[in-house]
Amino acid sequence: MAADAGYPQVMLRTAALVSLLLVLGAASFAADRPYGVAAGVNIGGGQIDWRPSANWMFEARAQAGAENGTQKTTSALYGLRAYRFLHVGRPSFFAGMGVAKTTAKREATSYRADGVAAGAFLGFEFRLIPHVYFLLDAGPYVISLHENRSSLSRTSLDFVGDAALVVGF
Amino acid sequence: MRRALFIALMFAAATARAGMHVGLANAVAKESDSLIDQAVEEDRRAAVGDLAAQNLPSCGASAPYSLLPTDLSSVTAIVPLGAMNPPAHTFPTDHIYFYLNPLDPLNPGGPRATTPLFAPGDILVTMIATTEYLSASPPFIDYGVYFYGCREVKSYYSHIQLDPSFSAKVGAIDQNCTTYTTGGSTLRRCQESMAVPISTGERIGSSGAPYAGAFDFGTYDYRVSRPLLVPTRRGGDTLHTVCPVDYFSTQPRQQMESLMGRFDGGFQRTVGPVCGEIVFDVAGSARGLWWKPGAPDNPEDPHLALVPNNVDPTMQNISCGTSVAGMSGAYAFIPTSAGRVNRDFAQVTPDGNVYCYDSFYDPIGQPGAGNFRILISLPTSTTVQFERDASSLTCGSGPWSLSGAAVTFQR
Questions:
Q1: Same domain flag for B329 and B243
Q2: CATH number at residue B222
């Protein structure tokens, strides 16, 4: 992970834009059939999904975020998720687990916090138009961070909601 | 579709109500921000030395000091900035001296009174240095106390002894030690960074018998940069030298200004700025600071200063360190504005001429100092040739020529 979180943010936003174009483009001509692979945008980033069966889906995702405190702190993460579809329909409901490697940096300083986040979530998937799906989920995440200069650490439990728009191929 | 929208809306409402984070990366950013805030605060509290001063309020226009550093009735005179005492202080000094009263008025060269020193304002002590005079018999230690009155103004007292209560606050000073030689003496200096707040008037220490006849008081204002011709060669805090007295409120400032002059109180400086000056360089002339090629910039011992006298700036000083045999010292003369004898250094240029200097005064203003005359020439605007000529005490009418004994200095 790069020390400067600004660069990943640019990359992630670019990836998100490309994904959005893919979503719109694919939606316009793709045939309506259950997807095996999907790509899309989520909150602050992008993701690629692989659905080997109707009940299981695996995902790689990247996201960027920010907190505007006294000084801006930017974050970036790369993570994996596993989905188990409990009910397949319109909508489909799922449960899942995720893990991500995170980094955050206080702008214009050398303060940086690295860590991991892991959690579980419940959510649903809804097909908006043929091959374009909207996913919404929420759940508890344990976020464990280590600040590099001071060696301070903290672990917290946060409830996180997430959303994605994907197109299946 | 409606069902999905309903669920999405309910989800969003629940998220907002539960204080959930939207997006894991935003949750990470928020938690990281909080952790980094904690780290910043910890660093701020742990800061020592100059770094700790960054937590102080900015200086602004008001004077940070309001209390005299010592009882002025114990002080004979305050020597302005720019004093020279080669070889350790070949260049004009960046501090003023508080000379203390002699214990025996009939013996002005004897031991001086001991006087307490106080915090001149609410200060943050950021460093204490010890100097052990290993060549003295017996060796002894004195202290330098560095403090900030506000974020950008750092001051120090040196050649003092610490008060026991102050010493208990700051602890032992036995780290970061180096041994060096200057002025023919071997010294061991240790220093310790800290962040110890001290209130106005709190006793810091004392100066005087048996270790010192005077103490130094210096101030640097980091908002100020002095226009030295070769700033990198003096370097460090000297570039920010200001007069400490100027950072006091009106009454103590005026009291101290009235004492500015020669160390024995025999001559009061009246030419402004009465607190003296350290920057005298005039490009393309002999006036200013000169360095012996090949010698390190610091200490000042091997170098040369051709600058105005700090007590009577109508006079000029030849302050020579150790590079010219037989004349380490400061020699004052009355400059002229024409001819080539005792010509004002600012008017000595690379014109191919040799200039002669004679009729020197000693530090207490007595004529007859030096059993030589001095010859100076500038081959280039950044090179001076300097010769002690013992063949005569006076210059006569010239012309003069440099011999192979002339020493070259540069800047």
A1: no
A2: 2.70.70
Task: Decide if B38 and A91 are in contact by the 8 Å CB cutoff.
Answer: no
The chain A residue lying nearest B26, using CA atoms, is A65
Contact between A102 and A116 under an 8 Å Cβ cutoff? The reply is yes
**Nearest C-alpha of chain B: how many angstroms from A130?**
13
Q: Nearest-CA neighbor of B387 among B345, B341, B325?
A: B325
What is the gyration radius of the CA atoms in chain B, in angstroms? 28
Query: Do B218 and B159 lie in a common domain?
Result: yes
Number of domains in chain B: 2
The verdict on B329 and B239 lying in the same domain is no
Give the per-residue pLDDT at A1.
35
Q: Let me know whether B174 and B221 are in one domain.
A: yes
pLDDT, tens digit, 9 for 90 and up, residues A61-100: 999 999 998 889 999 999 999 999 998 888 889 999 999 9
**Residue B265, Cα to own-chain centre: how many angstroms?**
22
Check if the beta carbon of residue B236 is closer than 8 Å to that of residue B134: no
Nearest to B196 by CA among B221, B232, B168, B158: B168
DSSP B315: S
Nearest Cα of chain A lies from the Cα of B126 at a distance, in angstroms, of 22
pTM above 0.80, yes or no: no
Question: Per the domain annotation, does B14 fall within a domain?
Answer: no
Q: What is the DSSP letter of B392?
A: -
Contacts of A106 in chain B (CB under 8 A): 33, 36, 40
ipTM score of complex: 0.84
Chain B residue closest to A74 (CA)?
A: B29
Query: By a Cβ cutoff of 8 Å, what residues of chain B touch chain A?
Result: 1, 3-4, 7-8, 11-12, 14-15, 18-40, 42-43
Residue B44 banded pLDDT, cuts 50, 70, 90: confident
The ranges assigned to domains in chain A are: 6-168
pLDDT digits (tens, 9 = 90+) for B151-210: 999 999 999 999 999 999 988 888 889 998 877 788 899 999 999 999 999 999 999 877
Q: What phi and psi, each to the nearest 5 degrees, are found at residue A121?
A: -150, 160
Q: Which residues of B164-185 are buried (b: 16+ CB within 10 A; e: fewer)?
A: eebbebbeebeeeeeeeeebee
Among chain A residues, the shortest Cα distance to B34 is held by: A69
**B171 and B295 share a domain?**
no
Structural domain including B247 reads 72-257
What CATH class is the domain A6-168? mainly beta
